[in-house]
């Protein structure tokens, strides 16, 4: 049997991989994707293997693991991951899988430990992943050094933690440098999470991202958010009116004088960073547009800084205002199930009940998230119909969606091509 057909036997997904590449190569660039991309089990597994197990993912914030022994866990497809602060302040990421018989090691979302101890038979690992102790019964020639935790690539910038499960991840330096630059004054190492929400949406992860990449739906869906958000995506938005452009120019001059970064920066299609004005007279994404925390983030000089928007494909978008930030993370659970995590972040010295009320701070995005959840779920239900066929995106209103789907298609085709098990 030639190696090609052996590969096919070994990999039950091989025909689906070929079909995926073919559909992407033949897709209409400005149309939504064919149905299987949104609801097929095999396509979902390919998404996890080729996107979520290969691309850099936003995992969490450095301020969530402030001291040595602080850890957080997450799941990338079927891969439990633990991120832990080491003895010298360094950030480690590991597969959260014991090297004894494979039990999940850390079972809590967050916590603090002196060592990583497996709950099953108490194999004990140093915070840097070395196996320190494996009971007394492993035999005299047992070599602890062969059973350290498996590392996961991890990089940090501007207080953001990114992980990649790839053997050879792509370069991410430009993003990390940009985050250091744009978030310098936010001092995210000295921030804290004031509130968190975790929503499981009955929709494919791409529908969650597509929905986020346009504000075509904002007028009809988001009354609370539109108390402060301008529906223009950035200063290059094709819909921008002369009045909006004038406001942008006036605000950019103010930000320039204050030394606050505002430039529009793109890194390929994967990342975009830009500061845009909020509605005139508002400074924060709250019900009344006023600041939600009396204490500003980091060393920011003013509450009135519009909103710094940071996009990281495939799984994060972010809004930084003068007083607080809202950070979003998307993780796929199943073909039609997605975890959306939202964190509201304030200065670490801001005092709950004195400087901010978390209930008041989270109101706008709790409402917005719920509205977006419904939209994504209804989109999913319609797409599941035999009547669904890819439909056209508007170039003026949905350019962000076009960009996302282009990024996805390019990365998918590239990663499929590089995968050893592919028989294209
Ligand atoms: O700013 C956001 O997070 C996006 C833009 C449009 C819809 N959504 C609220
Ligand atoms: Fe972890 Fe046995 S599986 S100690
Ligand atoms: Fe929305």
TrEMBL record:
Keyword terms: 2Fe-2S, Iron, Iron-sulfur, Metal-binding, Oxidoreductase
Family annotation (SUPFAM superfamilies): Bet v1-like, ISP domain
CDD domains for this protein: RHO_alpha_C_GbcA-like (cd08884), Rieske_RO_Alpha_N (cd03469)
InterPro entries cross-referenced by the UniProt entry: Rieske_2Fe-2S (IPR017941), Rieske_2Fe-2S_sf (IPR036922), Ring_hydroxy_dOase_asu_C_dom (IPR015879), Rng_hydr_dOase-A (IPR001663)
Pfam family, one: Rieske
Keyword Transmembrane helix assigned: no
Gene3D superfamilies in the cross-refs: Naphthalene 1,2-dioxygenase Alpha Subunit, Chain A, domain 1, Rieske [2Fe-2S] iron-sulphur domain
Cofactor(s) of this protein: Fe cation
Domain Rieske: 56-163
PANTHER family: CHOLINE MONOOXYGENASE, CHLOROPLASTIC
Protein name as it appears in the record: Protein GbcA
Gene: gbcA
């Amino acid at each position: 049997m030639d190696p090609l057909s052996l590969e096919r036997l070994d990999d039950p997904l091989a025909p689906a991989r070929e079909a995926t590449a073919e559909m992407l190569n033949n897709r209409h660039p400005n149309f939504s994707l064919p149905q299987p991309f949104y609801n097929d089990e095999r396509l979902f597994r390919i998404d996890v293997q080729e996107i979520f197990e290969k691309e850099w993912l936003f995992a969490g914030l450095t301020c969530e693991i402030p001291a040595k022994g602080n850890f957080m866990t997450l799941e990338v497809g079927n891969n439990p991951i633990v991120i832990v602060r080491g003895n010298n302040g360094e950030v480690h990421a590991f597969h959260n899988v014991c090297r004894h018989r494979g039990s999940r090691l850390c079972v809590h979302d967050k916590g603090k430990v002196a060592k990583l101890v497996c709950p099953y038979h108490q194999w004990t690992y140093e915070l840097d992943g070395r196996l320190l102790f494996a009971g007394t019964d492993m035999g005299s020639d047992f070599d602890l050094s062969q059973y350290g935790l498996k590392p996961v690539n991890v990089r940090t910038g501007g207080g953001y933690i990114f992980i990649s499960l790839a053997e050879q991840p792509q370069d991410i330096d430009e993003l990390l440098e940009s985050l250091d630059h744009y978030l310098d004054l936010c001092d995210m190492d000295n921030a804290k999470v004031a509130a968190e929400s975790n929503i499981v949406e009955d929709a494919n992860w791409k529908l969650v991202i597509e929905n986020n990449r346009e504000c075509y739906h904002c007028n009809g869906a988001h009354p609370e958010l539109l108390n402060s958000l301008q529906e223009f995506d950035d200063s290059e938005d094709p819909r921008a009116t002369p009045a909006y452009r004038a406001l942008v120019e006036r605000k950019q001059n103010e930000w320039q004088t204050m030394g606050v970064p505002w430039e529009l920066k793109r890194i390929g299609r994967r990342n975009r960073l830009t500061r845009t004005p909020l509605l005139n007279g508002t400074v924060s994404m709250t019900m009344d547009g006023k600041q939600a925390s009396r204490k500003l983030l980091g060393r920011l000089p003013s509450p009135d800084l519009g909103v710094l928007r940071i996009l990281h494909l495939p799984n994060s978008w972010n809004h930084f205002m003068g007083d607080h930030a809202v950070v979003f993370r998307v993780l796929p659970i199943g073909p039609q199930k997605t975890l959306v995590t939202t964190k509201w972040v304030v200065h670490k010295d801001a005092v709950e009940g004195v400087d901010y009320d978390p209930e008041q701070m989270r109101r706008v995005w709790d409402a917005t998230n719920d509205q977006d959840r419904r939209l994504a779920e209804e989109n999913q239900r319609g797409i599941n119909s035999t009547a669904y066929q890819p439909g056209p995106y508007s170039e003026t209103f949905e350019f962000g969606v076009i960009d996302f789907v282009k990024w996805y298609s390019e990365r998918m085709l590239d990663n499929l091509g590089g995968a050893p098990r592919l028989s294209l």
